[in-house]
C-alpha cells in the first residue's frame, strides 16, 4: 500500500475516534440532564396543572381553550433562550455545586410542589429555604436527622446559593414579562353580586436549563470533555433544569398590563438581592437574611397584586352596549379576523349586540359570512369580516361572558 494512502487512513481513523469521543461526551452531558429528578418533577407538575386547567375551561365554556401540550410548548422557547443567557453568567462566575446538593434542591422542590401552588415551585422559595437552612445549622446540625444534610451543605459556600437565588429571581422576572401574559386561560365566575364575570389565569412552569460546575471526577469524562481549573480544582460542566413557577389571576384589567408589571418589579428585586448576595461574600450572614427576605418580598408581591386586582371592577362583564371578548379559540374564524381579547364587538352583520343571545341571533342572519364592528383597546371602531363554514367548532370561536338566563355555554 502506498505510504500516502496509509497516512490518509490513519487520519480518517483518528478523526472518527475524535468524533466518537465528542458524541459520547455530549451524550454524557445530556444524559445527566435527562436523569435529573428536577426535570421529572417539572414534567409531572405540568401534567397535573394542565389537566386542572382543561377541566376548569370545560366547566366555563364546555370546551378546552388550549390543548394540554400547550403548557409545555408555550414556555419552551423562552425557557431555553433564557437558559443560554443565564448559563453564560454562571460559567463566567464559575458557580460550583455537587450532585448531593442538587438532590437537596429536588427534595425542597417536592415539598413546595405538594402545596399544589405552582408559584411556589420556584428558585426564590427553594433557594430561599436552602439559605435559611444554612442559618439554622447551629440549632439543627447536632441532631442525627440533619447530619447528612449539613455535610452536603457544608461542601457549598453559602454565597453560591445566594448568587443563584438573585440570578434566578432576575430570570423569573424576565420570563414573566416576556412570556407570562401569552395565552392566558379564560374562566367564568360569579361576582360578589352574583353576576357572571370573566377573568384570566396565567399559570406557567418554565424548565430553564442552566450550566453549573461540579468537581472533576464525580461523573465519567472523556478526553474531549471540557474541564476547567479554578483555584487548582478541576471542574466539569453539567446541565441542571431549574423550575420557575408563576401564577396570577387577573379580572380587573387586560392580563398583559399587571403581568408585565409584575415581571418588572421582580427584576428590580432581583437586582437588589444580587447586591446583597455579593455582600454575603464578606458577611456570610447576609445570605441567610437574603433567603428570608426573598421569600417575604416575593410573597408580598403576589398578595398585594391579588388584593389590588380584587378591588377593581370586573373588566370582562356584560355591558349595555357590545360584547367584550373574553377569549379566542385557537384556529377559529375569529382568530383569523385578528380579534383580540378585551376588544368589544358592538355589531354583528350590522345588528347591535349586547349579550350572547343577541350575538347569536345576529350571527344567524348570514350563516356563511360574518361582518363585525369592533371597538379596539384604544376606543376606535374597526371592521372585521370572514367566511363561516359548516362544521366549524362553535361557528365563530369567540368566548363571551354568559348570561344568567343561559347556563348552557358561552361560546359563539
From TrEMBL:
<feature type="transmembrane region" description="Helical">
    <location>
        <begin position="227"/>
        <end position="246"/>
    </location>
</feature>
<feature type="transmembrane region" description="Helical">
    <location>
        <begin position="152"/>
        <end position="175"/>
    </location>
</feature>
<dbReference type="InterPro" id="IPR036034">
    <property type="entry name" value="PDZ_sf"/>
</dbReference>
<keyword id="KW-0132">Cell division</keyword>
<feature type="transmembrane region" description="Helical">
    <location>
        <begin position="196"/>
        <end position="215"/>
    </location>
</feature>
<feature type="transmembrane region" description="Helical">
    <location>
        <begin position="93"/>
        <end position="112"/>
    </location>
</feature>
<dbReference type="GO" id="GO:0051301">
    <property type="term" value="P:cell division"/>
</dbReference>
<feature type="transmembrane region" description="Helical">
    <location>
        <begin position="124"/>
        <end position="146"/>
    </location>
</feature>
<protein>
    <submittedName>
        <fullName>Cell division topological determinant MinJ</fullName>
    </submittedName>
</protein>
<keyword id="KW-0131">Cell cycle</keyword>
<dbReference type="InterPro" id="IPR001478">
    <property type="entry name" value="PDZ"/>
</dbReference>
<keyword id="KW-0812">Transmembrane</keyword>
<feature type="transmembrane region" description="Helical">
    <location>
        <begin position="69"/>
        <end position="87"/>
    </location>
</feature>
<feature type="domain" description="PDZ">
    <location>
        <begin position="312"/>
        <end position="378"/>
    </location>
</feature>
<keyword id="KW-0472">Membrane</keyword>
<feature type="transmembrane region" description="Helical">
    <location>
        <begin position="266"/>
        <end position="297"/>
    </location>
</feature>
<keyword id="KW-1133">Transmembrane helix</keyword>
<feature type="transmembrane region" description="Helical">
    <location>
        <begin position="26"/>
        <end position="49"/>
    </location>
</feature>
